[in-house]
Amino acid sequence: MKTRSNRILAVSVVGLVLVISSAGLGHGQQQPDPNSPRFLAVTALTEFIQSTGEEPIHQFIAEKMSPSVTAEVSESDLADMLRAVRSDFSGATFQGAMPEGPFTVVLMFQPSDPHGFSRLTFEIEAEPPHRFIFIDY
Q1: pLDDT on residue 31
Q2: Which residue(s) pair with 122 in the sheet?
Q3: 66: helix, strand or coil
């Protein structure tokens, strides 16, 4: 009897969540602001991943990487890291982004290779112009 009650409760809770979602009452989540620093960073990084050639790498370093990073890491090492990011996520399908903090985001991908990477985390500066200070996967 107790197991049956637990199942009924579980089904009721799931049903309630579905009803709230379909009624729009669970709309605590807002659409992302296309002008927010995180959204702009997601756009910049996903566009970079789809780029080809050397120029986008050097442009990304010059325009999108924080001076605190470029002061510590050589341009050559940053270029190698960005080439690896682009290569490892090339062909992957962007699935979405999850904020992990005010300036940190996890990008989710469906890899083209079953053994490929599916998550890419980045952090941007708190102050404008909100350049990248961390990219990892």
Answers
A1: 78
A2: 105, 135
A3: coil
